[in-house]
Amino acid sequence: MSKLFAFAGTCVENGAVVYKFANDANRAKALERFGCTEINIIALPNAMDKDAAIAYLSQVGMTATKPTRVAKPKLATAKPATVKVKGTKATKVVATKVGDDALKEQWAESMAERKANDMPIMSFAEYKRNSAKWDKFMAKVDTKLEAKREAGKVCF
Fold it and tell me: In the chain, which ranges are continuous DSSP H helix?
């Protein structure tokens, strides 16, 4: 379900005419404070989502040169976590933090596999908590193994 708005219009923002949406007529004052000029916001005949409001504004002759900004979807980018090994200046990437979208995909695959094998299914929050604990544990293990390798106590 998309959000509904009671007011819509156009304004000049950073030199481009853009659509603006609001549920309060006082939005024009806020836009003015943010540096927008030529603010033209009108009350819509009924509550509308952005697409319907843009269509209505086009019918009444209010158009923008730039489409509205759409929220960017969160990408499942992995950010490497570095762990410093005691006694060295170098850092080593030992784990990655994965965004919720990628973690949800992993959770769905894992739960499908567990369901197929008649194993108990866990909530996403529990899976996320366990994944974080596992990543933290593996970071410690990797750090200890690296220290043992440097000391010559581990040959693999």
Answer: 27-33, 50-59, 100-116, 124-151
